[in-house]
Amino acid sequence: MRPTLREYVAGTTERPPVMSGIGWGYLFGAFGAVLFSLKAIFVKLAYQPVDGLAANQIDAITLMAMRLGFSMPVYLAIFMVALRARKSSGADMPKPRHMILAGLLGVMGYYVCAFLDIEGLKYVTAQLERLLLFTYPVFVLIMSVVFLGYRPKLLSVMSIIFGYLGILLIFANGDIATGENLWLGTAMILACAVCFAAFQLLAKPLITRLGSTVFTCCAMFCAGIMIFTHLIVQTTLTGETQFSELPGRIWILGLVLAIVSTLIPSFLVNIAIHRIGAQATATLGLLSPIATVFFAIAWLGEPFGVYDAIGTAMTLTGIGFYSWYARRDHVPDQVTPPNNPAARQR
After folding, report:
1. Residue ranges of E strands in the chain
2. Contact present, 128 and 121 (Cβ < 8 Å)
3. At 312, is the pLDDT very low, low, confident or very high (cuts 50, 70, 90)?
């Protein structure tokens, strides 16, 4: 039976809809992956030296504040609707301690990760950023080995090595791994990937308890508090604020970041998960680096040589195959409480 809109928003539906909507599920998942990939493109456009601004003059925290400022009212409305829907449907209301934990994780996932990512984009190309972030499942595997005692299969290790050989090829001979402070930017993007991997491991049990809608809203609220606190402290210490001097183009890009690359794709991906399942939706994530390559060339004029193409193909193949094999082999992708029956089944 197809879940109602009220059940979807409340996060109380337990099974995907009937197969008649499977085509729309793939379409929503693909479109969501493409829109997510545009985030790096819009950030790089904001960093361009036009409208009297120097290259990379915009602060990362300014872009983050604009992104959250435009999207926060929508998340607040969704949160209120979700709570009302849960109450009217008779479902259990979220426990405050779970919402607090979700908020703390949001600080890590949507504040720390986002800052490292957006700041790192000052020093690396959009293509390289997306490719490095695409390797985050590797860090999930490493954490699963270290903290959960998982023993990886040889095929997993070989596919990861193949994927990273593609990145090494790009760094050795490619055109997209150049520029000042390349290694600083690379370190920041990889730190973002590590942070996001930890976020995913810790978040899944809470998403199960709260539902994806309530979890995301709680996480976004607390991340927003930290972002605006950061902005206020920075403005107080420096005595300067960029908002009064921003050209209209930057405000438009901030709005687009909030709507096109945050709100819309988050809902599209959630709908896709309900229609076709998490595994199929995750596989569609392969479209994200490919879309970034296309838009980076078309809109940013970034180079893309033969070695870049080969290295990108190797990375997408290696990490993509590992991601598929990890789901098939049930690699742990969450921290499961010991008193949970699922923990004993593993």
Report:
1. none
2. no
3. very high
